[in-house]
Design a protein that fits this description.
single chain; 436 residues; Rossmann fold; Dihydrodipicolinate Reductase, domain 2; Alpha-Beta Plaits; 3 domains; six-stranded parallel β-sheet; elongated; binds L-homoserine
Length: 436
């Protein structure tokens, strides 16, 4: 049988990795897919560079439209990123009846509903394993391996840049700004790291996972997104003294009132496997009602790890392309006519535990005031740490860990604490998950 023809949009790091791995493992891949998979055409603005990578074996063009309009191309791989030209080309490829593989989490988290609808109407596959956690086959696990389960929650370290920065901050006791510069120097962080450090990249991935886990539309606009840029080294140190590590988690959880979808720095018990995921690695913990907890760990970025996911999608499509669309795995794991309209909860309605750090005057009654405020709000204290004032200072740090409560309760308690004359400045609040 003739090889299936693939057109590649964008041959940057991942595109190059995809090209290299497909070439290196072509015989094994052919044996698995049932036919060869050949990148027949590449579009990249830097045509010269692209030609150097692919040699004379395939056509190189600057205009992606030539790829998506080429009747000989069966599958389009979109590795451009963003939601400008990438969205136009993906929509056009679908309209032209081509299957699409994309690593573009931003595109799917914001325009997924439109893309999947168009794909369904055309009977084509849109595959996106590489969009979440790079080389970890988490989409496959959620859509297929765990399909018997009612998923209860997912908590993931799904951004390598921020995990690298947090690991370095903890290991070396350095502040965020210093570590970020070092991460940029070493190539772990982009020159413009905004999407990573502000939690946006993780929120795109958490949004996609929430849709697949709970059978709801992708709704990035409803996600709560908080990055690590305001995190202070002192809190990483106190968390450690209390037996916790701070990770940027993407969390999505089913509750009786709706679905939680949030990304923020989170204290997790140091003994959990997830707490020990260090450096740029990713890991996703999934709690299903039948299977219990399962953990997926690996490289969440990089040329060949991401290529591994892209090529897995190519193989899936090659195997399934001739199958009746009705019998394929649905894009978001649930049949399109069986999607739920369960609301995503506003942040004020979510339930979690909290780490609070306050700078207080070292005087009688301060602790009583703080505990009274928490008791009034129905918030139970789990642990407490008070540090002596530093030499020559009159103010002490108090750290309180609470049991679970609603975000709106802690908001109200924090406002009352900040109004006390004995409390200086803002209360630092970091959410805490036991993940048990
Ligand atoms: N920039 C991401 C990370 C990888 O640092 O994990 C691509 O989503």
């Amino acid at each position: 049988m003739n090889p299936i023809k693939v057109g590649l949009l964008g041959i940057g790091t991942v595109g190059r990795g995809t090209f290299d791995v497909l070439k290196r493992n072509q015989e094994e891949i052919r044996r698995r897919a049932g036919r060869g998979i050949e990148i027949a055409m590449v579009a990249d603005l830097d045509v010269e560079r692209a030609r150097q990578i692919v040699g004379s074996q395939c056509e190189v063009v600057a205009d992606g439209n030539l790829v998506v309009d080429n009747p000989d191309i069966d599958i389009v791989i979109e590795l451009i990123g963003g939601y400008g030209i990438a969205r136009q080309l993906v929509m056009k490829a679908i309209a032209n009846g081509k299957h699409v593989v994309t690593a573009n989490k931003a595109l799917l988290a914001t325009h997924g509903t439109e893309i999947f609808k168009a794909a369904q109407e055309k009977g084509v596959i849109v595959a996106f394993e590489a969009a979440v956690a790079g080389g970890i086959p988490i989409i496959k696990a959620l859509r297929e391996g765990l399909t018997a389960n009612r998923i209860q929650w997912i908590a993931g370290i799904i951004n390598g840049t921020t995990n690298f920065i947090l690991s370095e901050m903890r290991d070396k006791g350095l502040d965020f700004g210093t570590v970020l510069k070092e991460a940029q120097r070493l190539g772990y962080a982009e020159a413009d790291p905004t999407f990573d450090i502000k939690g946006v990249d993780a929120a795109h991935k958490a949004t996609i996972m929430s849709a697949i886990a709970f059978g709801i539309p992708v709704q990035f606009d409803k996600a709560y997104v908080e990055g690590i840029d305001a995190l202070e080294a002192i809190d990483i140190g106190y968390a450690e003294q209390l037996g916790y590590r701070i990770k940027l988690l993407g969390i999505t959880r089913r509750t009786d009132r709706g679905i939680e979808l949030r990304v923020h720095p989170t204290l997790i018990p140091a003994k959990r496997l997830l707490a020990n995921v260090e450096g740029a690695m990713n890991a996703v913990l999934v709690q299903g009602d039948a299977v219990g907890a399962t953990l997926y760990y690996g490289k969440g970025a990089g040329a060949e790890p991401t290529a591994s996911a892209v090529i897995a999608d190519l193989v899936d499509i090659t195997r399934l392309a001739s199958a009746d669309p009705e019998h394929r795995v649905p894009y978001l794991a649930f049949q399109p006519d069986a999607m739920a309209d369960t609301p995503i909860l506003p942040m004020s309605e979510i339930t979690t535990s909290y780490y609070l750090r306050l700078k207080v005057a070292d005087q009688i009654g301060v602790l009583a005031d703080l505990t009274r405020i928490l008791a009034d709000g129905g918030i139970s204290i789990d642990a407490m740490l008070q540090k002596e004032p530093a030499e020559g200072e009159t103010q002490a740090d108090i750290i309180l860990l609470t049991h679970q409560t609603q975000e709106k309760q802690i908001d109200a308690a924090i406002a009352r604490m900040e109004a006390l004359s004995s409390v200086s400045g803002k209360v630092t609040r970091i959410r805490l998950e036991e993940l048990s």
